[in-house]
Amino acid sequence: MFSPHGPSLRELAVQALSSVEHGYDLLAPKFDHTPFRTPDGVLDATTDALRAFGPFDRGLDVCCGTGAGMRALKPLCRGRVTGIDFSSGMLAQARGAHPDAEWVQADVRALPFAEAFDLAVSFGAFGHLLPAERPAVFAGVHRALRPGGLFAFPLGAPPPVTSGWYWALLGFDLAMRVRNAVWRPPFVMYYRTWPLRATRDDLAAAGFTVTTVPLASLGRREDGSPRYRLVLARKAGKPA
Fold this sequence. Notes:
- The structure is a single chain.
- The mean pLDDT is 89.
- The N and C termini lie far apart (45 Å).
- This protein folds into two domains: 37-158 and 195-235, Vaccinia Virus protein VP39 (Rossmann fold, 3-Layer(aba) Sandwich); 168-193, no CATH class.
- It is 34% helix and 19% strand.
- The protein has eight helices and seven strands.
- Helix 1 runs antiparallel to helix 2 and helix 6 packs across helix 8 (196-205).
- The protein has helices at residues 9-16, 20-27, 40-50, 70-73, 88-97, 134-144, 164-182, 196-205; strands at 59-62, 81-85, 102-105, 117-121, 145-156, 208-214, 228-235.
- By secondary structure, it is an alpha/beta fold.
- Strand 2, helix 5 (88-97) and strand 3 form a beta-alpha-beta unit.
- Pfam families: Methyltransf_25 (PF13649).
- It comes from Actinomadura namibiensis.
- One of its GO terms (biological process) is methylation.
- InterPro entries: Methyltransf_25, SAM-dependent_MTases_sf.
């Protein structure tokens, strides 16, 4: 599951007993050697799907972590690309890997931008945001985009109840709820809190027009439905 360069079980335990911000500061130097980093296949599939909607000028990676999303963002954007995250440790890794990008430390629940970007993306970070925080995040992204701007992110289909993954993810979320009930500071990391229907509803409430496209290269489930969909949330207006 982890490479020899990844964190030890002890390091993961220390992270899990920290706050989200401090935990990722600690994990940052080894994060890219864990399965928590968004796989290149997901990043490349997102880039391929977005090419038909571009090219774009300026791009934003929301909850950028160590900067893996730049693999998807840079080929799509002609202008400057920016990553935003609240972990100084993760941003330090991102700066080292992509010195040509702009990096901003801030809380994504209060994005400090206004009509500055044409494309915003996010990968693998939504589990760190509670459902009640979605409206603030989506409102901030909407404000950060120029008229006609696009917010895109992949969402995986939930595993069927007969799958071992269904029960593993359910067990993880329950364990995390117990941990947060008895230990402070809380560590927010849930796998089952961003279903597609609720996510679409909150995006629409923030002012977006929402569609989805299947990421066919990532395969299909046994019932024929795609394993991943790319959510496309468009801000009203004519792109520059």
